[in-house]
Write a structure and sequence with these properties.
Helix content: 25-40%
Number of domains: 1
Order of helices and strands: EHEH
Number of helices: 2
Strand content: 5-15%
Structural class: mainly alpha
Length: 58
């Protein structure tokens, strides 16, 4: 999954509660790729309430 915070429709709305901001800190970096394994791990941790969910949306 390619994450580009510059094109996220949730930008400025949910950045403070998005795993990208909290764990990956790529809001000002160029687009980054998250592997299927990483995305799966993020989903599991988020479902358990340990981290915020991925709020990225195109």
């Amino acid at each position: 999954m390619m994450i580009d915070c510059q094109t996220c429709t949730m930008r400025e709305i949910s950045c403070s509660d998005c795993v990208v901001t909290v764990l990956l800190n790529i809001t000002t970096a160029p687009a980054s790729e998250i592997s299927k394994n990483q995305l799966s791990a993020i989903s599991v941790l988020s479902e358990k309430g340990l981290i915020p969910p991925l709020r990225y949306a195109k």
